[in-house]
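Worked example

This section walks through a single chain of length 193. The input is the sequence exactly as stored; nothing has been trimmed or padded.
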Amino acid sequence: MRLLSAIAALLLLGYPAAAKAPQWTVDLKASRITFIAKQMQVSVPGKFERFTAAIRFDAGDLPGSKAVIDIEVGSVTTPNRDIETEIKREPWFDVTQHPTARFETTAFTQKAAGLYDVAGTLTLRGVTKSVTLPATIRIADDPGQPGALRAEASGEVKVSRTAFGIGQGQWRDVSVVGDEVVIRFELVARRSR
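Given that input, the structure is written out below as tokens.
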């Protein structure tokens, strides 16, 4: 599996023929991937502290655009330490067996200026599902780096936790922990003009 991931990364990053759009460098300190779940109808926010992103994007070459985001699931944090500890265990994320989640794009469709539907696959706890993520992507001159461009991308998608097997055994019951989870992302990236 690691070999296949390495080959995919080489194809994505190393060969222009595989993806024609220009490569962006993600500012991980300025970027965030968060989620909101509900327990007893109370919102419980969470954040993934560590992730990597390989992005090629050009609004004029959407077929050649591609993004792969790998999330270190064990880096999850929440305001509640008990919840933070519990969701890493086997009934939930099972980070020992499934340390990485992945979102990989399959298509970008422009809906309006700066607004896109980003189709892709989301893999959580070893289960892969197709999702479409409405996103806003804004690109402008980077005020901090003359001659560079700065992109800001944001969006969210609602997923069913039980569809991904998150919440095993008694936790399949959605009366205590709701089924719907909102995943949000805010990415900042740069490239030379």
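What to look for: The two ends are 35 Å apart (CA to CA).
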